[in-house]
Amino acid sequence: MANRLHGKIALVTGAAQGLGEAMSRMFADEGARVVLTDINAAGAEKIAASINAAHPKAAVALKHDVTDPQAWQDVLADAEKAFGGLHVLVNNAGIGLSKTVEDISVEEWRKVHAIDLDGVFYGCKFAIPLMARTVKASGLGGSIINISSISGIIAGHNMAAYNSAKAAVRHLSKSVALHCARRGYGIRSNSIHPVFIATPILDGLVSHLGKDEAYAKLGRQVPLGHIGEPKDIAYAAVYLASDESKFMTGAELKIDGGISAM
After folding, report:
1. Which range of residues forms the domain containing residue 177?
2. What is the SS3 assignment for 179?
3. Is residue 4 part of a domain?
4. 205 within a domain of the structure (yes/no)
5. For residues 139 and 144, what is the distance between their CA atoms, to the nearest angstrom?
6. Is 164:110 a contact under the CB 8 Å cutoff?
7. Structurally, how many domains does the chain consist of?
8. Cα separation of 234 and 256, whole Å?
9. What percent of the chain has pLDDT over 70?
10. Residue pLDDT, tens place only, 154-196
11. CB-hemisphere CA count at 13 Å for 192?
């Protein structure tokens, strides 16, 4: 199928690399116009330029600190000015941290939650009014896609803050789904839960072990025997962004190579 997102306007946070880049590119390939946001403005602009080379005027890039409520309001206003509204919000920006509950500092705990959880809350809170207006005017369905993690379902001894934040994103997504359904906004909310994906979030382990050994080590933990690729998550995001998933809300997609079945 092609043009599965024709007419849709999407905003993707953390779009300068990794999952955000992959989702933004695939959204544009499927006919959407995309607002790419990132604290790394130059990186987002580079990806947007590449998208526009293939799909003229399909993408814009904006500098965005997801931990700042005012920045969210400014970015959403700019998105409306650029494309006229918003149908799809992808809360993807996030960081990882491997520390136990005893080892992590209070400052580190707060930073992980500020980016991985508060940023998602702000996105939902401030985007929903714009999305509801856009959905009503266009007749196309709205979709909030929150990128959680399999670590939001399966805990690790050394992932205290990351486990906590990503588990909260899972449940927040359900609360948002029920709220939007009750209000009749035509906006769905779901979460995606990847396992290890070949993105810069693995750079720490790669720098320690080397790419091949790092990926192999992680792959041995996955029943399918290997880690995932960014496009594995992008395919799922396209489905959730499209009206093919119009009866799916408050759910989670586990894209984890079978690890949660163990």
Report:
1. 9-199+229-256
2. helix
3. no
4. no
5. 16
6. no
7. 1
8. 14
9. 100
10. 999 999 999 999 999 999 999 999 999 999 999 999 999 999 9
11. 26
**The token pair that represents 115 in the structure block:** 């980016």
The active-site residue out of 162, 185, 215, 235 is: 162
What are the tokens at 20? 């955000």
Q: Tell me the CA distances in angstroms from 106 to 16, 56, 103, 174, 182, one per residue in order.
A: 28, 46, 10, 28, 37
Residue that is written with structure tokens 């995309």 in the block:
34
Interhelix angle 69-83/119-138, rounded to 10 degrees, is 30
**pTM score, whole prediction:** 0.96
- Predicted confidence at residue 1, as pLDDT, reads 57
Q: Is residue 219 part of a domain?
A: no
Structural tokens at position 140: 């196309």
Reading across the β-sheet that carries 9-13, which strands appear in turn? 59-63, 33-38, 9-13, 88-91, 142-147, 187-194, 252-255
Strand, coil or helix: what is 63?
strand
Cα–Cα distance for residue pair 66/43, rounded to 1 Å: 16
Q: Is 185 a catalytic residue?
A: no
Q: Got the DSSP string for 29-70?
A: HTT-EEEEEES-HHHHHHHHHHHHHHSTT-EEEEE--TT-HH
Query: Any idea what the CATH number is for the domain that residue 135 is in?
Result: 3.40.50.720
Q: Are 13 and 36 in contact (CB under 8 A)?
A: no
Q: Is residue 29 part of a domain?
A: yes
